[in-house]
Amino acid sequence: MKLNESKNILPVTFLFIILIVSRVSVSFGSISSDSVISATGLVVYVPLIQVTVNPSRTIGLNNFSLGFQLDGPDIRNWRDRSVLRELASDADFKLVRFFEHRLGKPCIYWNESTKTGRWDWTGVDLLVQRIFEIGAEPLIVLGFYSWTYDRVSSAPAGMSDDPNTGLPYPDQWGAYCGEWVKHFREVGFPVRYYEIINEASFYFGWPATQPKLSYYIELYNASAIAMRTTNPNVQVGCDSSTFKNVLDYFTSHGEDLDFLSFHRYGLDSKTKSDAQAMEAAETKYLYDSANFYGVDTARQVYKNAKGVELPVIMSEGNLCDDYDPIDQRAHTMLGAVYTALSIRTFTLKNLLHSIYFIFGGGEDEMGMVDANANEPWYPYYVQWMIGRGLAVGDELVQTVSSSEDVRSLAWLHEGKLVILLICKIDQSRTISLQGVTGQLDYFKIDNTIPWETPSVQKGAMNSTDTIIMKGYSVMLLQAAG
Fold first, then answer.
1. What is the pTM of this model?
2. Do residues 413 and 389 make contact, with C-beta atoms less than 8 angstroms apart?
3. Most CB atoms within 10 A, among 239, 297, 362, 434?
4. H-run or E-run covering 69
5. What angle do CA 138, 336, 19 make, to 5 degrees?
6. 349-374 confidence digits (pLDDT tens)
7. Sign of the CA dihedral running 211, 176, 139, 234
8. Nearest-angstrom CA–CA distance, 10 and 444
9. Residues near 117 by Cβ (< 8 Å), separated by ≥ 6?
10. In sequence order, what are the residues at sequence separation of 6 or more whose Cβ sits closer than 8 angstroms to the Cβ of residue 31?
11. Are β-strands 439-446 and 428-434 bridged in parallel, bridged antiparallel, or unpaired?
């Protein structure tokens, strides 16, 4: 990880800063971000934004923590490379999602007459052990519905599909899922989280249609019953459970959900604008729409029906789902700001986790880390800053920005004030902190260091100093010491 000393905190006493600029030369040296401004000419006005923090006014307790998904070659790379696991540990990720078959199907053969299988757990057990070693826990997806083959392609050899539904028979799939829970209980791994069939909407439609929705619910019910019979502490969910008609049907025909979950990619095309990405970060699937319940409504719908308020997990997401090739903005400061805005909103919306897809990939692949160089992209650094400084139970405190261009979030971590600032516009903005006293340490990422060689700038400032954010930026400040 690269950390750079920076001195981009400049005092100012006017409502507007007037910069006389005709040429800007930026010198990085060994990657330094000091700007050199010279000559005369164009006049640029940078408005002053006030961010007011009230550390004595608590607005809630934080329940949110970070996660990521392992998929494709990434799952083996992460399991087998200590440097990648150390990056995950450094950012204090708490939940790791993976599909049950990506290391090779651990069930070598399934016997339908006995509802048992022959298993080789070696690869899965090592992965689960590695996850627990970094202080996280797994979320295992049992069942991958292939949109190419129109079937659950992760089902083991020997397990047949019901020709009427196109899914495995519920009693067989339930017994198979129960074997996963039984195994982890026997080897002593406290695995709790499971989802039944990844993106089952590829099977039953978007919005869900009958009779396929009822067929899926029958499969879910059999799985949940078998798994909870073996271990009543498991947490079982469906990643399409905030679809309106899916949740409505669950409340009347389904076994209990232990959490609500959904997938969210901000953009569905690389042609969508930066502004659309920023809007999606703060709104998409979090508020009611034609086919989806927002997270608050979904909680209330389930509570009205079952008397329980469920936690919510965004269990897979990234900037854009147009991945062949990927939207390369995902690796840049735009992707970092999208990630920061999402995390801020998830925290305020009281989500339990968000899962970033995926941990490591190449320059033309998904991932928060360049797996070829074992070095982070900018979205990792966002999560590194926040994950190390925001814990479950921290007090969230009131903070207000005077401009829509800059978002803020503040909390008390181990008795110290922490402030997150996000500049969501690719233009310079100047910020004055109000309600804050004393010395502050800071970490910052922005476009002054190219995304191809990203690093974190760090330094110290007085709370009365004015902050210049140079376009897309994410900055974490905390009480010194």
1. 0.92
2. yes
3. 239
4. strand 65-69
5. 160
6. 999 999 999 999 989 899 999 999 99
7. positive
8. 15
9. 107, 108, 109, 110, 111, 156, 158, 176, 179
10. 2, 4, 449, 453, 455
11. unpaired
